[in-house]
Amino acid sequence: MSKHEKQGRQGARERATRAAGTKGMPRKERELLILDAAAEEFGTKGYARGSTAVVAARAGISKPMIYEYFASKDGLYLACLDRAGSRLVAAVAAAQEGPPDLTRAARTMEAIFRAIESRLHDWELVYDTTVPYESGLHAAAATYRRELNRMGAAGVADVLGASRATRPLDADLVTHLWYGTVSSVVGWWRHHPEQTAEEMNARFQRVLAALCAPGGEGGC
Looking at the whole model, is its pTM more than 0.90? Predict the structure, then answer.
């Protein structure tokens, strides 16, 4: 049986279990169940198209119970966003410890892979473009994005510190290249969800090593 088939069967079993209802389940466990269902719904469809009715069905609860726990759709979304954003920021922050060279990029990507393994929708929550612009949800998401970007820019500055690319616009260009690289790698993973964090990390390491191979001007 393939890895994808195993994941599909596991998901089916989990949905069947949820369908049996949550009567007697401790409040904290039920809350986590709702958050998991909501993160998948909003992360897959976005805030605008995400449905609390679908979340309730996936969690095996009534729709009014969502409002009992989270007050509103916005409250539910914010709880999902805070969980996803704080997890990502903490993972990337921990990866900044170590030599200020290209291994920092590898450490950062490995941290991201492990943080969102089986939870690619967490990334989508932080970067959801369907959240109303002038809303508290947008402001909350922007806070997490700014912190991730700040660490990315700091990492680029450290790596470039010992190189010949010392002009301000050099760092600005490389920073944008880094943002695009991270986004593209996560986007590629979205199309290959059967890949594990370990497999993604190994692949990224191989590609980075190939691109930075010594012996030519294109080397890092």
Answer: no
